[in-house]
Amino acid sequence: VQLQASGGGLVQAGGSLRLSCAASGRTLSTYNMGWFRQAPGKEREFVARINWSGTGPYYSDSVKGRFTVSRDYVKNTVLLQMNGLKPEDMALYYCAMTSLYGVRTSASDYAYWGQGTQVTVSS
Questions:
Q1: Considering only CA atoms, which of 120, 108, 123 is closest in space to residue 43?
Q2: Which of 13, 17, 120, 18 is nearest to 77 (CA)?
Q3: pLDDT tens-digit readout, 71-105
Q4: Buried b (16+ CB within 10 A) or exposed e, 81-109
Q5: Are 63 and 89 in contact (CB under 8 A)?
Q6: Do residues 76 and 23 lie in contact, with contact meaning Cβ atoms separated by under 8 Å?
């Protein structure tokens, strides 16, 4: 399976972006999905996750209330709506897939990864 993240770009602080994660070779509808990000010189960190059923969204404290994760079963994609972007949100954003149940916030729990999409926030 290949995951493709897209939707990144340059935005001013306070602006919005919507990231999309698409899959080829496999439907996403039976997998739990996660979003992670990695800034230069920092470790990859958990951002958000959602169950295969579209329930159970869970967010890191740093994005809670600003980001929303959802699924589009028709398009076989997972979305990350990012509002109120801050300079500290600037990173390479990855989508990932896991067959493990429960709230999984560790990158090691996710078996499949997309290539990442860059989010740049100007202050």
A1: 108
A2: 18
A3: 998 999 999 999 999 999 999 999 999 999 889 99
A4: ebeebeeebbbbbbbbbbeeeeebbebeb
A5: yes
A6: yes
